[in-house]
Amino acid sequence: QVQLVESGGGLVQPGGSLRLSCAASGSIFSIHNMGWYRQAPGKQRDLVAAITSGDSTNYSDSVKGRFTISRDNAKNTVYLQMNSLKPEDTAVYFCFADLRVPWNPYSDYDYWGQGTQVTVSS
Length: 122
Hints:
- By secondary structure, the chain is mainly β.
- The protein contains no helices and 11 strands.
- Helix content is 0%, strand content 61%.
- It starts with a strand and ends with a strand.
- The mean pLDDT is 96.
C-alpha cells in the first residue's frame, strides 16, 4: 500500500518555470532512489533526473543546467524544479521511487506515480 502522488504540472510559456512534487505515502520502510521520467506522445519513457538517498543526482543531458532535483526525506517527497522550459519539455512526467517496505525490508520495490502533464507552449 504505497502511493506516489505527483503535483505541480500545468501549462507554462517557453522560458517559464514549474516545480513538480511527488509525495510517497503508505507502508514505507525506507526510500532509496527517487526521480522523474517523462514520456511525450509517440516517444519512449526517458529518465529526466534521479536522486539517491545520499543526495547523489543524475540528469538527462537535455535538462542539465535547467532542472534541479531534490528531496525532503522527512516528507518522503521528491521535487523537480524546472526552469527555462522549452516546448520539447512537453510530456507526461512520472515520479518513481525505489523503496523498501516493512514486511520485506531487504528487497527494493519500484513504485510509480500516475503522471502529471507538463505543457510548454505559447
